[in-house]
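User: Could you write out the 3D structure of this protein bound to glycinamide ribonucleotide? I've included everything you need below.
Assistant: Certainly. Input first, then the structure.
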Amino acid sequence: MRRIAVLASGRGSNLQALIDAIAAGRLAAEVVGVFSDRAGAGALERARAAGIAAVSLRPRDFDSRPAFDEALFSRIDGVQPDLIVCAGYMRLLSEHVVEARAGRMINIHPSLLPAFKGLHTHQQALDAGATEHGASVHFVTAELDGGPVIAQARVPVLPGDDAARLAERVLAREHPLLLATVGALVEGRVRLLAGRVADRGRPLAAPLQL
Ligand code: GAR
């Protein structure tokens, strides 16, 4: 699993963490393309600055979600990735593209799944009075933020936190979490086995805590 394609809609700090770790020799992989649904995504700029192919398609140029996904994923298939990383990709994916890539596509989500799926996760955590929050990396399935969780990183919710402060604390842990998880996948240590996360061939009883 050396060839990585990244999907991103936004600023791309998780992408940058991957690029930097690879450049520093801390991750034995290659980012072979960055793909976006937003032409102005910072992630595309970061890719170009690193000499990585950067592709964006506009959803409004397509009749339907499946048609958009078909076009985007045919571009992704063109770079022959072993692993597809959703790093701040904010569009729902259609079932057919996800199911065809089971075990080869992961997503980083800013909550301790299964808690707080969807958007505005930091505000959701504050509103629920959570004392602990964090981030998860999971295999992507057709269910939104619902695939098997590989690894998580936890942070405390502190008195006086607002969504922005909490997001910052979580993001600082997202980067090492993503790197460690991608590392384990690249090495073939972790994989999806019969619908569950397996570590060295053994199903995990609970997500890895990083
Ligand atoms: C990250 O916090 C990531 O977990 C989140 O978007 C941010 C992207 O930041 N993803 C989601 O909310 C997916 N549902 P980045 O563009 O700086 O990597």
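The chain has six helices and eleven strands.
User: Perfect, thank you.
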